Task: structure prediction
Amino acid sequence: MKISIITITYNSENTVEDTLRSVLSQDFPNKEYIIVDGLSSDQTVPVINRYAAHIDKFISEKDKGLYDALNKGIEMATGDVIGMLHSDDLYADEKVLSKVAQAFAIDPEIEAVYADLVFVDRNKPDKVLRTWKAGDYEEGSFKKGWMPPHPTFFVKKEVYEKYGNFNTSLKLSADYELMLRFIHKQKIKVHYLPETIVMMRMGGISNTSFFVKLKANIEDKMAWKLNDLKPGFLTTIRKPLKKLAQYFHK
Result:
């Protein structure tokens, strides 16, 4: 099995080196590392270039946003499985990709693997602020406000080829829409890896202001409509409420 990892960057000079080292230190040998930069104006590209010998594919050009950049990475990927690690996130240890590969090996019909995630202090990554315990997926979980942490979501490339990439009409919730489409609508077979594999720095676009969260909630509703699906009566309320529980997990 070959695993492609996509990192998108834009003016990430303060964090991207940690992300690069996190991916390159993985003990899984058959990996492909792809970096898609949005034409950064700071020192992001010079930092990336220092690791050029260990990066399989790298482009730096203007894009139409986060999900457009991710779609570029998906199209460039040649691995059997695709994972994504953003430029301010880290893998929890050097064995993450090996653990993911082992999870896929359990059953050849598994089409995606997901796991747990912790939110960490932006300047002190060893300080955990929230814990996202994904839990096992059950039919209908999305209607109850459930979703897996997207940075832990590893998917076979053939799933993207069959069901499509990110919907770029959504600016904040395209990851939710994609997982809703793959898991709830198309019913791909998923496997839960019950351990933390990603450390996500607080302060990213998805966990900032109230107005950003409000817009994301509106886009969540659109995600159901785009797929001709009907959410549960309280789905869009239960989804943000579930996040509150993340502050109480140890």
Remarks:
- The first helix runs from residue 16 to 24.
- The two ends are 34 Å apart (CA to CA).
